[in-house]
User: Fold Nucleoside-diphosphate-sugar epimerase from Pseudarcicella hirudinis.
Amino acid sequence: KILVIGANGQIGTALVDSLREMYGDNQVVASDLFPAAEDKGLFVTLDATNVLALVETVHKHNITQIYHLAAVLSAKGELDPLRAWDLNMKTLFNVFEVSRELQLDKVFFPSSIAAFGDSAPHYQTPQETFLDPTTVYGISKVAGENWAGYYHKRYNLDIRSVRYPGVISYQSMPGGGTTDYAVEIYHKAVLGEEFTCFLKEDTLLPMIYMDDAIRATLELMEAPAEKIKVRSAYNLSGISFTPEELTRSIQEYYPHFETIYKPDYRQAIADSWPKSIDDSAAREDWGWKPSYDLKSMTKVMIEKLTEKYHLHIA
Ligand code: VAH
Assistant:
């Protein structure tokens, strides 16, 4: 069975649904610190910093794979660096150690474009390049990538990872990320409100629509092990756009929608990240190809959020 740690997070929420669709509801155990609002199937409360609790959960539910989606994200991590490092790494080591000891089949842990810093080329950022992350979150992701490679090489643990761009979804709100503006903006537009963006209008960032992010994750995890050449984390790209371009794509539906720009401390984080990603390694090794562009993502986001708020497109 599959255990998803951080099941109530932005990616965890969508990932649990997709894993259940693929493998069956009773094959996926969702876990988080507290239950989600609405009951959505097999769930256990689990604090992944508690290794004994993790061992107990793995034994009790016959877990053979772990997807570790719990972490403190980039912006929030800067408010309490050592807590973010401690939580991100303690949970990661627990997952890697328990998976090694109990000989789990596969482990997924997410890296991020936050692994890159100012020394990496900002356009078409390559798979192999110098990593000098500017946030604690990014430092924890680079450390995680190196530890993943170590556990694979030394213990032959089948750990797989992708460097997610900013992930955009309607199912749940992200928490504490620098790319969160690109989710919040759609909610404001659908609710007929003005949006205040915490990044400058020309801040170009690599993003990905959740359906593509989840499909990439499942395709990576389903690929034969011998195809997985990268045991740190695969670059993954979806769509690169600026807040201005995103606003314009929304105005096709809401002509009077307005974004005002009030950059804050997250601007410096965004400026240190790639503007576009070269994901040719993922395309070559396991056939990755995104299917959403800005137009099709905006269409589905507005449709889904209109339903969610029980509104009807005018
Ligand atoms: C964040 N959404 O902003 C996450 C992600 C690349 C962005 O790591 O921290």
Summary: The pocket of (3R)-3-hydroxy-L-norvaline is lined by residues 73-74, 112-114, 137, 164-167, 174, 177-179 (CB under 6 Å). Residues 306 and 312 are 6 Å apart (CA to CA). The two ends are 45 Å apart (CA to CA).
